[in-house]
Amino acid sequence: MYRLLDNNYTNAQLFEEGLTDVGKPLHLFVINNEPEFNPEKIKQEGKTVLMINNGIHPGEPEGIDASLKFADDILRNKDGLAKLLENTVIIIIPVYNIGGHLNRSAYNRSGQTTPYETGFRGNAKNLDLNRDFTKCDSENAKSFTKIFTEWNPDAMLDTHTTNGSDHQYTITLISPEPDLFPPVQDKFLRDKMIPSLFAGMKNGKYELIPYVAWMNDDPKKGIVLWKDGARYSSGFASLFDSYGMVTENHIYKDYPDRVASCYQFIETLAKFTSKNSASINKSRKEGEKESMAITEYPITYELDTTQFRMIEFKGYEASDTIVSPVTGVKRFGYDRSKPFTAQIPYYDTWEPAEFVKVPEFYVLPQSYHEVIERLDNAGVNYSTLKNDTVMEVTVDYIDKCTSPKAPYNGHYYHDKVQTHSEVQKIAYYKGDLLIPMRQKSIKYILEMLEPKAADSFFRWNFFDNILDQREYFSSYGFEDNAIKYLEDHPDFNRKFQEKRKKDTAFAQNHRAQMAFIYNNSEWLEKTWKRYPVGKIY
Ligand SMILES: [Zn+2]
Rounded to the nearest whole angstrom, what is the distance from the C-alpha of residue 164 to the centroid of ligand 1? Predict the structure, then answer.
């Protein structure tokens, strides 16, 4: 159908934008009001770019169908819709997870009855693509990053379906999380964009509610603004101060209503990006300046439970005493015969809990090709060293981190990362990367290269090679050097002898005593647990 639209209209074009894991190309459908498809030229005209991503979870296909209908309607100027294109260009990924979409079955969604048959959540590599935006294990994510970098969308919508809870709404929204944006954009989102989207939806058939993420076991006690990290589409967009959001259609409603409500949201969002193109552009331009000047970067957030506002919520009474007809055991659920309308607290403020200091440069050894490939795709600027050199830099040592017993999305994701910093003189070589921080992708670079950031390359195992030792010592081969070390360091020798006296197990363990000396000496390899990305402040 997109090919037909491409053939019929000169102001719309279907592009192939790189590959996906199933070997088939990722498509991008661009709708303008003139035959101009160069993002730079379009941006120069002051137009906003609205990006819509569909079918990342193929069992959640409302956006696939809604986008097709919207593209058709706006191109045929139904109800004067084409006017929106004067100020905004719409770019659509028809289906993102093509491999999963082809893996169709009526048995992919055990709690969903319509549509009868859908694709599968995992892609051709069995990856959940909505966890892959920073680590980019998939070709899909690599292609997506290139599209995102090329088009720098002002707003991005990723369409989904949810079974999280039951209520009366057909469509819910994970709005852009204002606290992830610089102050000027935080204000724009809270005062203008988010209220306008909810008000716009109220004018139509389908009312919108924030995605129902509970504070407690009952929505009446309050719901929370869901905060997506950078591995998710909307969190990824926020790294570039792009207004990324997610619709979650409600799984238990009829499919035609789900598609129609998704369509209504796309139309509402397109109307907003068109009508407010000047203020969106202004907010992002000013936001960019604010982001580029930051001195601290928040790496963790905590929900502020003192900040909330009351919103109207149309739910069904929740109960944990419903008797299951299958097992005969009491279970949690909702009683659809008991709808209610209530004012409930909505908690929408996340406060930064931990910061890292922003360096002026990172120095990245050229051997980390997989990291460099991802930085390139995301449009990061850097220069390379012209000569071999020794530089004084600040480096982090990974003191502690945990890893799960079973892999998560193809990785042994590191949690609870603890580090300490040291200033060291380190040899770098011609061709190593010098990455200046005062550039547009500053937040992306920080998120990816600060080891403690939640979706950093370190967390996702790109630097695991530093976590075990290479040289180490032999229990008997190190003895001569150990004796010499004790002779040359009388203070340490005293400490060593005291420990032997006090700790009998230690005194009887040859290897432990040798390790005690080795680990305190300059023989201990400096590269062990040393995160290899240097920082210059
Ligand atoms: Zn989903």
Answer: 11
| Total number of residues shown for the chain | 537
pLDDT attached to residue 293: 97
What CA–CA distance (Å, rounded) separates 273 from 280? Answer: 7
- Cα separation, 243 vs 234, whole angstroms: 8
Distance, CA 61 to ligand 1 centroid (Å)? 9
CA dist., res. 347 & res. 31, Å (int):
37
- How far, in Å, is the centroid of ligand 1 from the Cα of 413? 21
Q: Which tens digit of pLDDT belongs to each residue from 299-326? A: 999 999 999 999 999 999 988 899 999 9
Task: Write the pLDDT tens digit of every residue in 146-187.
Answer: 999 999 999 999 999 998 789 999 999 999 999 999 999 999
Ligand 1 centroid to residue 163 C-alpha, Å = 10
In angstroms, what is the span from residue 149 Cα to ligand 1's centroid? 23
> How many alpha carbons fall within 13 Å on the CB side of residue 530?
19
Spatial separation of the C-alpha atoms in residues 411 and 231, rounded to whole Å: 13
100 CA to centre of ligand 1 in angstroms: 13
The answer to whether the CB of 288 falls within 8 A of the CB of 310 is no
End-to-end CA distance of the chain: give it in Å, rounded.
53
Give pLDDT, residue 163: 86
For residue 470, the CA-to-ligand 1 centroid distance in Å is: 43
**For the whole model, what pTM was predicted?**
0.95
* Cα 133 to middle of ligand 1, angstroms: 14
